[in-house]
């Protein structure tokens, strides 16, 4: 089973006529839903609000088959994100997070990472940066990484996360706790303006991860390992928008490595095999491409 820790977000996505269409999103929630829909046992560690949107989020997880043992149902409102889609299909966001359900993690009982049951823990996005959830998640991950692999997707949103220097400091600390990191080229440009992707990836590898995967939009993706650098092209599609594409990629990457039997601490040497990583990238790229053909998160 894969444990995914983080937030649900209601994305307000532009619709015809100047209207806004609310859709269920949030990076960690999207990843959990995508994994569960493909039959990968997955549980979300997070919270949902007590409003109409929260009930809609809950139904989404039921329909997808996401395990809800560690989703806390609260009376708080749901987190909202306004997506502004540019001509190239990319999206920028404004968020409403104050007092919402997704970051109220004080005194929560988080699941024990029993390697007989849990294949890996994935975390990232807003819940890894906004207090008090950020502190709770970091402490949990720091303990869990001794038992199971850890995946981290920063999913940088400076409009909600705050000062770039502080976000960078926290990102580098969390990278050091991870076994695998998936990050977008756009995220890296926000954190390290003017610095080459390969320079950043190699710096991160030195901090501890076994694999750093960078998605490059329609240019594909590239994986950095101490033994190799593996590139993968992106399938050509009729682009609608890129909302949820990175999450779809991450779900494909994690799902393939887990289903193939390579997501275990004692099998990490297989990631040094270029063909193993290439197969994971190829599958993840196909899922990301499919996500770009529908409006909002799939």
Please, could you describe this protein's structure?
This protein is of the alpha/beta class. The protein has helices spanning 27-37, 52-64, 133-144, 158-161, 164-175, 185-191, 197-207, 245-259, 274-291; strands at 2-5, 9-15, 19-25, 42-48, 71-73, 80-85, 91-96, 120-124, 150-153, 180-184, 211-215, 221-224, 229-232. The strands form two sheets. The protein has a nine-stranded mixed beta sheet, with helices on both faces. Strands 3-2-6-7 form a four-stranded mixed beta sheet. A hairpin with a 4-residue loop joins β12 (221-224) and β13. α8 (245-259) packs antiparallel against α9 (274-291). The longest helix has 18 residues, at 274-291. The relative contact order is 0.14. The mean pLDDT is 92.
Strand order of the largest sheet: 5-4-1-8-9-10-11-12-13
- Tell me the total number of β-strands: 13
Q: How many helical stretches?
A: 9
| Beta-strand percent range | 15-25%
- The whole-number mean of residue pLDDT values reads 92
Question: Over all CA atoms, what is the radius of gyration?
Answer: 18 Å
Low-confidence blocks of residues:
none
Largest sheet: 9 strands, mixed
SS-derived structural category? alpha/beta
Identify the overall geometry: globular
Helix content: 25-40%
SSE pattern, N- to C-terminal: EEEHEHEEEEHEHHEHHEEEHH
What distance lies between the first and last C-alpha atoms, to the nearest angstrom?
Answer: 22 Å
